[in-house]
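wait is this the right file?? whatever heres the structure
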């Protein structure tokens, strides 16, 4: 088991999730995530990939739900490629939120079995245009 690989694994997983590769039903999933983040205002929109407890889930669109299902199927394969064992991670999530400066932010978060946290900001994500409310 290589705990040192958890940071890279979590970053790569989240980066892939918010990339232009995550395209479901004719649209980028990040478009829906972005709208959800702005709707949530100053709260985190978190996707819990691995969790040790009950978490309040936002009202995901069908596109986001489908995408989460696809990525949960891929998760064990990526963990294996990074030589990270499932039982070494107690929490894994992707956070999307609007920062105090009104910029959209994305970060990966993981916690290992020893309680160490791995937090990485993702600076490149599938964002084509500034958000405009309807």
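ok assuming it is, sequence goes like this
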């Amino acid at each position: 088991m290589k705990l040192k690989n958890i940071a890279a694994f979590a970053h790569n997983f989240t980066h892939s999730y918010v990339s232009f590769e995550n395209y479901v039903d004719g649209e980028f999933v990040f478009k829906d995530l972005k709208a959800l983040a702005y709707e949530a205002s100053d709260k985190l929109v978190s996707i819990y990939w691995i969790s040790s407890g009950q978490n309040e889930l936002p009202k995901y669109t069908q596109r986001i739900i489908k995408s989460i299902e696809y990525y949960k199927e891929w998760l064990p394969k990526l963990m294996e490629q990074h030589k990270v064992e499932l039982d070494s991670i107690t929490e894994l999530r992707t956070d999307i939120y609007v920062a105090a400066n009104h910029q959209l932010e994305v970060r990966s978060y993981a916690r290992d079995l020893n309680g160490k946290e791995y937090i990485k900001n993702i600076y490149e994500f599938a964002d084509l245009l500034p958000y405009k409310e309807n």
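The chain has a mean pLDDT of 88. so i think its the right one actually
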